[in-house]
Write a structure and sequence with these properties.
By secondary structure, the chain is mainly β. Helix content is 12%, strand content 40%.
């Protein structure tokens, strides 16, 4: 009987002892636009509060020999949370390299007093805006083009942009979409002004310039806005050929954001976030569409 009591006491003691199991860390890595550049942001999470020996003291993101040191974001490590870590604002060639990480596998190196750990992750674009969903869902505030209903005995019109065998995301989607996007125009007057009283159009040039034009017959009423340094932040293409793309541009000293949803037949709806508006946390400043995709990029010249 005494032996039974001793065994029971040992079992209770073991159950009452603090767990020494390591907390399971996971990471989400994003390339997040910030002002005139972007940051690499790693959000770490865990299934339980971290002990002092497990708390990260340094974090870095690396891919193909390039490493980006990250700094802890204040206020994100309370209560034993591993926190959010971010790089400095990247510009120029570093910004180009960071944007190229989207959709690719990266390593997240974590150092703590108890040792080192490496997590694997796939870099993502910016966090989605509330209600906007991640690409390729319909942009917040826009009405997606109506689906094509096949005529009995016939078939729906074919896609202008090809039909991938499986949905594409990130860099794979951008590779497929970019030839249709760069060197194209979205317009509400495919015949071109002056065939319409007013034409609104957006054009995307190989040098990264971005034109928004509102052409009218009234002197002084035209709008000729030119942006530059177009930087992609997200892309996808569905098997029906429809696609969505998002990007940031520099516009008269400010960074603004666009997202376009394009149907298989080139019907376009878009969202715009003006200076100071954050697509990760705010609804669009305005929407555009429906417009029509046409091949060929234009300036605001008639």
């Amino acid at each position: 009987m005494r032996s039974a009591f001793r065994i029971m006491a040992l079992v209770l003691a073991v159950l009452a002892a603090p767990s020494t199991a390591q907390a399971a860390l996971t990471s989400v890595v994003r390339v997040q636009p910030d002002g005139s550049g972007a940051r690499i942001v790693a959000t770490l999470s865990t299934d339980k509060p971290l002990r002092a020996s497990q708390r990260p003291t340094s974090v870095s993101v690396s891919s193909k020999g390039k490493s980006y040191p990250l700094s802890k974001v204040k206020g994100t490590t309370k209560g034993g949370a591993p926190g959010t870590w971010q790089s400095a604002v990247l510009k120029g060639k570093k910004l180009t390299a960071a944007n190229a990480l989207v959709g690719k596998k990266v390593s997240v190196g974590i150092k703590s007093p108890g040792g080192t750990k490496t997590l694997k992750s796939v870099a993502q674009g910016p966090a989605p805006a509330p209600g906007g969903g991640t690409v390729p869902g319909p942009a917040a505030g826009t009405t997606p083009a109506a689906p094509i209903t096949p005529v009995p005995g016939g078939s729906a019109p074919t896609s202008l942009f090809g039909n991938p065998p499986a949905p594409l995301e990130g860099q794979a989607a951008l590779t497929a979409i970019q030839p249709f996007f760069i060197g194209s125009t979205f317009t509400d007057c495919p015949a071109g002004w002056p065939n319409c009283a007013v034409e609104q159009r957006y054009s995307f040039h190989p040098d990264g310039s971005h034109y928004y034009c509102r052409l009218t017959s009234t002197s002084g009423a035209d709008i000729n806005a030119v942006g530059s340094e177009l930087t992609f932040t997200g892309a996808s293409q569905a098997t029906d050929g429809s696609w969505a793309i998002s990007y940031a541009i520099r516009s008269y000293g400010n960074i603004v954001y666009y997202r376009w949803d394009v149907s298989p037949q080139g019907i376009v709806n878009g969202s715009y976030w003006g200076p100071g508006a954050d697509p990760a946390t705010m609804a669009p400043t305005s929407t555009a569409g429906p417009l029509q995709w046409v091949s060929g990029a234009k300036t605001c010249a008639y």
